[in-house]
Each structure stands twice: as C-alpha cells, then as structure tokens.
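Subject: Re: docking follow-up (flavin-adenine dinucleotide)

Dear J.,

Thanks for your patience while I sorted out the input files. As discussed at Tuesday's group meeting, I've set up the holo structure prediction with flavin-adenine dinucleotide included as the bound ligand rather than trying to dock it afterwards. The sequence and the ligand SMILES I used are pasted below, so you can double-check that they match what you have on your end before we go further.
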Amino acid sequence: MKPFEYVRVKDARQAAQALGTERDQAKILAGGTDLLGEMKDYLVTPARLVNIKTIPNLDKIEHDDKKGLKLGALVTLSRLAEDKNVRERYTALAQAIDLSAMPQIRNAATIGGNLCQRPRCWYYRDEHTICLKKGGSKCYAVEGENQYHAILGGGPCYIVHPSDPAPALVALGARVVITDGTKTREVPLEQFFILPAQNVRRENILAQNEIITHVLVPAPAPGTRSVYLKEREKDSYDWALASAAVVVTPNAGSVGAARVVLGGVAPVPWRVAEAEKALVGQPLNPATLARAAEAALAGATPLEKNGYKVPLAQAVVRRALSLTMA
Ligand SMILES: Cc1cc2nc3c(=O)[nH]c(=O)nc-3n(C[C@H](O)[C@H](O)[C@H](O)COP(=O)(O)OP(=O)(O)OC[C@H]3O[C@@H](n4cnc5c(N)ncnc54)[C@H](O)[C@@H]3O)c2cc1C
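The structure tokens for the complex came back this morning:
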C-alpha cells in the first residue's frame, strides 16, 4: 500500500479542508471495508485519508412519525437492520441490509460508505487492468467475461451498482444531505448516482470536498408495504445478480402508488417508471405482476453472456411484488 497521511476531523468544515479540491488526492475514510481493499490493490492511491468517524452525532438513527427517518451517515449497517422501527416501517431497507455482505462487514460498514462504495466489476478490481473507469481506453466487459455486468443503462462502461441498501432507499424515496462544510444541499438519492455515460470515472455527484452527512427517508403512507429481494450466486455473501426493491401503497383493493427499483442490473439503482405505471390502479393479481415484471425489463439490452439476467430480474420483481401482499 502506498504510504499516506492520516487525519481525524471534528466537523464537515475540517473534512472539506482536509479533502481539498484535487481529485482523489485525499479520500474519506468511514468503516474502511471498501476503501482499504481498494488501497491495498492500488486501485486508489490517496496521499491522505480523512477519518470522518470522529465527527460527532453522525451515528444517530432518528425517527419521527411524520417526517420519517433521519440517518447519520456513520450509522453502521448492523445497527440499522437491528432497529425495530426500521424493520417494521422501512422493511425493504432492513431486508436489503440482511442480504448485504456478512455480520463482520455489516458491523463496520456505514450507510454513507455503503452508498459510495466502488463497483465490483472484476476488470475494475483487477490491479493490472487499466479499464475505462481507471482512465484506460476500453471497457473489457464489452467483449470479455460480461456475465455479471449491466443489462440496462450500460455504456461506455458496464458496471453494475454494488449497494443493496441503495435500491431499497431509492424505492423508499430517500434523500441525501451533502455538505462541504459551508454549503449544504439535499438531493433525491435517485439523482445522487450517475451513469457512466455522464462520467465514466465516477458513480455519484459528490465533489472532492463534499461528504454525505445524512440520509432522510420519508414516513411511508399508511398501509404501505415494502420488500427487497435479491438473487445471488452463493448464499454466504455475494453481490446481486439481480435484485428488486418494491414499495406498494394500496387503495381500495388496487394499487394506489408503487415504486419499483432494480439492483444488480444497471450502473445505478434502476427505477422503472413503466413497471410502476403497469401497477397503479390495478389489483395485485398474477396478470398485473407479470405485466409489471415485463415492463421492468422491457428496455434491457444484454451483452453476450448476461442474457440470463432478464428472466431472473423479471422473476425477482414478480416475487417481490407478490410478497407485498403476504
Ligand atoms: C466481502 C464483502 C462483501 C460485501 N457484500 C456486499 C453486499 O452484498 N451488498 C452491499 O451492499 N455491499 C456489500 N459489500 C460492501 C460493503 O457494504 C461496503 O464496503 C461498505 O458498506 C462500505 O462502508 P464503509 O463505511 O466501510 O465505507 P469505506 O470503505 O470507509 O468507504 C467507501 C467509499 O465511500 C466513501 N465514503 C465513506 N463515507 C462517506 C461519506 N459519509 N460521504 C462521502 N463519501 C463517503 C469513501 O471515501 C470510499 O470511497 C461487501 C463488502 C465486502 C468486503
């Protein structure tokens, strides 16, 4: 690992100063479960690590019946999933965390770090491959081993977004609070992530000197049910081959409102308005589920080896929706 300077900061202003403005010269350190692996593999080589875990009060889970959930960016995944209120009212989020990594990682990993973790594409993670994302001239997945890559929203790079909590939070309508210590902005999580076509080197809109301080999740409307389901290759721990977060609010025997967000199939959590339209105003019966699942994947353009993701993701959407009735 390249030697680096280590700084502890007490607030966002100090963090912004320590992070500076030169891209990737300094990196934010939270739980370190992703960043340190990247540094050991020389995928990133910051001259300075800025430990934000010393900023007070960013490790709180706050509930308000009307306003909803306010999560400090330093809340660990395990604390979040253990929270009774989160499990009952924001079920998809708790389920997504249960299906993320393993207990040792969840005990250290923070929700802010989870949303900013880097992709797991094996070409990106290979120290010796200089792909587009690392400043090279080629996405090796296009003609290579692309079985785990994007079927939606890909190009010129075909990563899939790695976070499980992210699709659940997008489906639940979450917003992120971002600050550089002077200016603070609140952004829908859906707009926080960016596609490779927008910037192939980055996965989100954060400026070099900005940190996420909070994640805000609105209180669900009465009767709302949410579910997160994930298919992976092995059960011990694994990233999603395909996943779905669905949030359904019933209205007089049919669907009043719905949000459908796919994971593991696109470079960002992939919200599908077409699937939502197929649900609203309809009874949640097998025909509606089938129409919504088909609509969810209608835009898919698989690569040579990942066509299996289309029926897999359709099945996950159908099953997740059917579980909102259970
Ligand atoms: C073996 C293994 C299996 C895994 N499986 C899964 C899985 O199935 N599902 C899943 O979702 N995840 C999985 N993960 C990823 C894991 O959830 C992330 O590594 C973790 O959530 C990152 O959080 P952290 O606090 O450790 O972040 P760090 O490693 O400290 O940081 C990660 C990135 O986020 C940035 N960052 C951290 N905090 C902030 C902040 N507040 N504001 C702005 N930027 C910030 C850092 O600079 C860095 O770039 C797995 C990881 C491992 C090692």
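A couple of observations from a first look. The first strand starts at residue 5 and ends at 8. The domain at 230-323 is CATH 3.30.390.50 (Enolase-like; domain 1).

Let me know if you'd like me to rerun anything.

Best regards,
T.
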